[in-house]
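WARN retry 2 of 3 for item q-0093 after timeout on previous attempt; input resubmitted unchanged.
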Amino acid sequence: MRLLRRLLEHPLTRGRPLDEAETTVLRRELIWSKPFLRRIYEDWYNLIRERLPPPPGAVVELGSGAGFLRELMPELITSDVMVCPGVQLALDAQRLPFADASLRGLAMVDVLHHLPRCRRFFAEAARCVRAGGAIVAVEPWVTAWSRIVYGRLHHEPFLPDAATWEFPRTGPLSSANQALPWILFERDRSAFEREFPQWRVGEIRPMMPVRYLLSGGVGLRALVPCWAHPLAVRLEALLAPLLPSLAMFACVVLHRTAISPPATSAP
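OK item q-0093 returned
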């Protein structure tokens, strides 16, 4: 499997350090240069836009560096953990620089599973997002199929059996557990909702069993030409009844309740 992953590796990303801003910029260029992959991001962004609540309040995207959500939402405040071209704010998602109840939403694509101390993030988000607001995230998901793909073909740690929600901090992108969103909102959902009553899990939409893999994502070569995207969409529609076993991603929506957050941040 290591040899297969090496053969599929995109030549522009091979050997690049994950935790440098230049790698994030390169990933943005790859998304734009791969029309099949760009269509996937457009679908994700439309899911996010449809699920964000209306004003008042601003919407902040976390981890904007490689993406283009602001092209679809000009009012969006973009942010990233690193200084990147086109990103308005460099910030730590675990220490959000926004006033209490000033936001109507936080948008995230492939960000949550990189937060080694996610409790701090949820406490900070509860402080910044107003009642009725939301977190809308697209994240990797754990299924029988994704265990094979993420466990054998992906470079990031994938640990569905992790005993805790935390993991070692190595760098902004190299720190990861791809299984964390599933752990929080599926395996340990009751524990999450007890610990964070300010957040109600409103929707979990498993999706995309084959398209992202066929696109090669931001690290691998594309496996099919761009004209095959409509065929892949139709294939995924046929596979819809099997998504509980085949999905590789999920769109997760957390609704901010009217419960006040505690006076101090989570540890």
